[in-house]
Amino acid sequence: MEASRARARGQLRFRSPLRGPWLTSVFGAVLLAGLPIVIVTGLLSYIAYGPQFGQAMPADVGWLRLPQFDWPTDPAWLYRLTQGLHVGLGLVLFPIVLAKLWSVIPRLFVTPPIQSIADALERLSLIALVGGILFEIVTGVLNIQYDYLFGFSFYTAHYWGAWVFIAGFVSHVALKAPLMIRTLRGRSLIQVLQDKQTEQEVGDSDLIAVDPAEPTISRRGALALVGGGAVFLAVLTAGQTTGGVLRHAAILLPRGRSYGDGPNDFQINRTAVAAGIDDVSTGADWTLELLNGDTTVTFDRAALLLMEQHTAELPIACVEGWSTVQTWTGVPLRDLARAAGIGDLDSALVSSIEENGPFRQAVLQSNQVLHPDSLLALRVNGADLSLDHGYPARIIVPAMPGVHNTKWVAAIEFRSS
Fold first, then answer.
1. Which residues form the Oxidoreductase molybdopterin-binding domain (predicted)?
2. Which of 75, 183, 247, 350 is least crowded, fewest Cβ atoms below 10 Å from its Cβ?
3. Same structural domain for residues 228 and 321?
4. What average pLDDT does this structure show over 172-193?
5. Confidence bin at 215 (pLDDT 50/70/90)
6. Which residues contact 403 (CB under 8 A, 6 or more apart)?
7. Does 65 lie in the same domain as 40?
């Protein structure tokens, strides 16, 4: 009786008859299926940036260091898939996250707030879970839409915020999964979808309204509303990864809304103007330096065009979630490594003409240099690269994060093991 009175004191303002363990468990089950995919693909993105070369951000992660391995170059669409899932699914799950928070909000006003050690652990896990996921979603969406908005490193904050969220998520699942499973077994989803009326759940849960109001929507209507919101966001998001007709519906398309002309009419994440690149630095005097220890070999663009050219259809996939597939023509990087006289290749440092950009240099793994489709691209879709797309030459490597496909290449230093 005392517990019921305590529950009532904190619950009188929450009168929806929809709330209860079952509805909360349904939302929780969906998030339990989807959030691990968002987590794993996010961590894979960090690995794809090459933390073994110190170029992933943050570089120093202490004991939270992830396993380091050479990021695969096959299939070519690998990073397009993993990062598209990370960003796209993260946005699609947002309505379900909000619905889950709505369904459990009475629990936050129960008095006294902590009644046992289990309650204390649950509240701590909720702080990490809710705070972490809201921080990741809000900063992630803002980073998609606005370049360098924050007064701090988004990449660093997003990485540490992810681990706060992961800790809260794992703890909360461990505490609440048994109750979720028992609740879902007690009433089938099909049964609820067949019910036209909303009857309040029975029990002593803090989520069940003490003085319920008249229902304004059924549970199946609530599920349809939340599910419809998720589908709507999927339509507005998927096109940035899949392309095709859905590309025109992708109003959440990030900074890639900057386009070129003709054969160069595809996404530009960083323009030549933003990078401080002009016609002088990329004009007739431009040369490419290939370095191998103390040996330097120099090519101008005309000499590169006389070398054997290779054409490959490859995607560029950006960390913000957008991707595009284009047909690239240029000199295979492995041919340039041979021209530099490299023997046992370990890695290659690519440097851009750009002087101040955060990604003006990138280290490529040996498998990325030696892949037959890895190119120093000179042309795209049958035309010369535009200045915004990296003229006179840029890197294009299968399955590699877009920012490491360095534009306006000035030098490539091949390193032996």
1. 283-415
2. 75
3. no
4. 88
5. confident
6. 269, 318, 319, 359, 362
7. yes
| C-alpha–C-alpha distance, residues 324 and 55, integer Å | 24
Residue among 219, 240, 216 at smallest CA distance from 320: 240
Same domain, 192 and 86: yes
The per-residue pLDDT for range 308-345, each reduced to its tens digit, is 999 999 999 988 888 999 999 999 999 999 999 998 99
Q: How many domains are contained in the chain?
A: 2
363 exposed, middle or buried (CB, 10 Å; 0-12, 13-18, 19+)?
A: middle
Are residue 181 and residue 300 in the same domain, yes or no? no
Q: Quick check: is 229 in a domain?
A: yes
Q: Kindly tell me if the per-residue pLDDT of 3 is higher than 70.
A: no
Residues written for the chain: 417
Q: Are 290 and 299 in contact (CB under 8 A)?
A: yes
User: Is 260 in a helix, a strand, or coil?
Assistant: coil
> What residues pair up with 28 in beta bridges, in sequence order?
none
Same structural domain, 168 and 272: no
Mind listing the pLDDT tens digit for each residue in 352-397? 999 888 889 999 999 999 999 999 999 999 999 999 999 999 999 9
User: pTM here?
Assistant: 0.90
Residue linked to tokens 């259809």: 313
Has residue 213 been placed in a domain?
A: yes
Residues 210 and 62 in one domain: yes
Between vectors from CA 16 to CA 12 and to CA 22, what angle results, nearest 5°?
A: 115
pLDDT band at 148 (very low <50, low <70, confident <90, very high): low
Of 249, 281, 301, which residue constitutes the final position of a domain? 249
Task: Quote the DSSP letter at residue 370.
Answer: H
